[in-house]
Amino acid sequence: MKNLLKNRISGFSIALLLAFSIFVTGCDTGSDAKTGTMTVEMTDAPIDTADAVNVDIERVEVNRVGDPDGWTTLNDWTTLNEKKETYDLLNLANGATAVIGRAALEAGTYPQIRLVLAEEGHSVEVDGNVYDMKVPSGAQTGIKLNINAEIEEDIEYVVLLDFDASRSVVQAGSSEQVPYLLNPVVKAKEKAITGNIEGTVEPAGSEPVVYAIDNSGTEADTLASTVANTEDGYFKLIGLEEGTYDVSIDPRNDNYAIENITDVSVTVEETNSLGTIQVSQN
C-alpha cells in the first residue's frame, strides 16, 4: 500500500513538473526568437515641372506570413531621427536615398510593405510658389506593395522604394480646394538584387533628364529616371533589375538633341559606367 501511494505521488510529481516545463517554455518563445533587420530606403524618379516635392511620411509597416492582419511599424522616429521628417523627393536623385524605416524583425516571410502618408503637410513648389497638396482618401489608408521579403537571422534586408514624383503630383480639378494632388506612385524592390547605371552628360548646360527604358516587352517601359547634375552633368540610375536597357538622354534645353544608347547591360550589385556622353546641338 505504501509503495502504491509512493508511486502515485511520484507520477503526480513528474506530471506536474512536465506541465510546469511546458508552461515556462510557452511563456519564453520570444526570448530565443531568431531576428534579422529590414531597412527601407526611398529614392525618387524626378519631375522637371517643380522645384520641390515635399512628402510627409507617417508610418512604414510590414506584415508577416502567419499574421496577415498584423502590421509592424519600421520607422521608430526616436531611433531614426530626432523628429518625424518631411522629405523633398527632388533631393533623392542620382543615387541619393533616405532611410525611412529600420527595425529588427522575427525571421520569416514578409509579403507586403505599407507606406502611410500623413493627412496633411505635403507641398509642391512651382515657379517659386509653394502649394499644399491633398492626398486622396484612398492613399491615406496606406499604399500596399508586394515585396515577399525573406528575413533571415542576423541578415539585413534592404527594400528600395522608388517614389515617382513625376507621376505622383497631379493638378487638381476645379472642385478641389487645392491646386495639386499627391496620388502616390511607388515601386518596391529588393536592393540586393539590383544594379545601377551611371555616366556624365556634356555639356551639363543641356540640362538632361536620363531614362532607363525596358524594350523587352510589347511596349517600352521606363523603369528609372533622374535629372543629371546641372553643374557637372553626372547621373546615376539605381534599383534596376539585371537585364539590358536603353538609356535615353533627353535635354530640357531645346538647343540640344536627344541621345539614345541601346543595349546597356545591368548586373546585380554592380554599376555600369557609360563614361562621358556628348549630346549634340540642334
Automatic annotation (TrEMBL):
Gene3D superfamilies in UniProt: Carboxypeptidase-like, regulatory domain
Endpoints of the signal sequence: 1-26
Tagged with keyword Signal: yes
One Pfam family named in its UniProt record: DUF4382
InterPro entries documented for this protein: DUF4382
Domain DUF4382: 35-184
Keywords recorded for this protein, A-Z: Signal
Protein name stated in the entry: DUF4382 domain-containing protein
Organism for this UniProt entry: Halalkalibaculum roseum
Lineage: Bacteria, Pseudomonadati, Balneolota, Balneolia, Balneolales
